[in-house]
Amino acid sequence: MTIKEFFSLKSNRYFWGNLIAMLLVVVIAIFATMKGLDSYTLHGEAIEVPNAKGMSVEEAKRLFESKNLSCAIADSTYIKEQPAGCVLEHLPNAGQRVKRDRVIYLTVNTKSTPLVVLPDVADNSSLRQATARLTAAGFHLTENDTIPGEKDWVYGVRYNNKLVTLGEKVPVGATLTLLVGDGGNVKAENDSIPNQTEVPTPATSTEDSWF
Which pLDDT belongs to residue 14? Predict the structure, then answer.
């Protein structure tokens, strides 16, 4: 068989028919695979994340579900000015485009005020030092209560009219009252001991006795 006869469709009709059929099968398989991948990954379809900040968790859940998205609580924090249980942040952020069924992770405001250990300022700090440490920690201070003691020395801390002990926890941002010395004299321990009186020495006569 000559080369001309080999490439002749008339002479090798069966061979060329099979070759063309195989090429068609390959093309169809590639096309079907690409379409399947597009359908699986939702190629070209994206959903804009709605803004759920300030909503309750239930409201946010309904909002995301209406957009074919889901949500889950990932973290919590405390902001006094925000309602308890509301959504503070979420990732991805509002306006970003995501795939269908994407999970949106929420940061919510805690429903109860967290407790923290009070800084150790009682009988350990001056008024200035205690004020700086407590306000830096987010606490509020009322007018000081004064007691006899070294002036401007902090002897204790009250919360809700109760003396706070070392290591005790109080709510974040609580209002506290400092017990501060007014500069009055503190009674010394030996002030209560009476002075010892001197025992008088018996008098001796200067006159000699004669027998």
Answer: 67
